[in-house]
Design a protein that fits this description.
Blueprint: H1 2-20, H2 30-35, H3 39-63, H4 76-85, H5 102-132, H6 136-145, H7 148-183
Helix pairs in contact: 1-3, 1-5, 3-5, 5-7
Length: 184
């Protein structure tokens, strides 16, 4: 996964450089658009972000184990709430509040973000290459949706929720299977 992360970021870097060196005004990265960060700033930001994601993924892969919750969680939302906040009823807070179990959040961030960044990097690469080489089917797609930027950011958000759900579902099943086995 780490290799795939680095490869996908390299593909995005290459495809972005096709546009950015010639005409940086077409760059849609928020760091450039809102903050005016140049090419060097984008490289430094990418190194920092990829480093943090790699560390979190390392932690998930080699240091983290699912917390064994002994509760009567009948659904995944209660399970996730207990996983992050040690009690039921706080599921929605996982999206806007720092959880009590920060190491669980770090591990889960590694699992989710490595997958999201790989997916989004390949999406951006496809977008940049199709646009740079003037691929006709992609031009038709752009005419249909207007700005592919909204589609790409929408898919990025959807992929974040998808991979989070996948992780929570996996850990919920592991925990319920463990307790069912223990009770037999």
């Amino acid at each position: 996964m780490t290799f795939l992360l680095l490869f996908s970021r390299g593909c995005d870097f290459y495809s972005t450089s096709l546009w950015f060196f010639e005409n940086p005004t077409g760059e849609t990265n928020p760091l450039y658009g809102f903050f005016g960060v140049g090419w060097t700033g984008l490289i430094i930001a990418n190194i920092i972000v990829v480093g943090l994601i790699t560390y979190a993924f390392y932690y998930y892969s080699f240091k983290y184990s699912t917390i064994k919750i002994k509760s009567s969680s009948n659904n995944r939302t209660d399970f996730v709430s207990e996983l992050y906040f040690n009690e039921k009823g706080h599921f929605l807070e996982t999206f806007y509040k720092t959880p009590k179990n920060k190491m669980t959040m770090l591990a889960h961030s590694g699992y989710v973000l490595v997958r999201v960044v790989i997916f989004v990097s390949f999406l951006a690469t496809i977008h940049n290459l199709c646009q740079f080489y003037n691929i006709s089917f992609y031009n038709s797609f752009r005419d249909l949706v207007g700005r592919p930027l909204y589609v790409i950011y929408g898919l990025m958000i959807i992929s974040f929720f998808y991979f989070s759900y996948r992780l929570w579902n996996k850990e919920y099943r592991q925990t319920t299977d463990t307790f069912e086995t223990d009770n037999i």
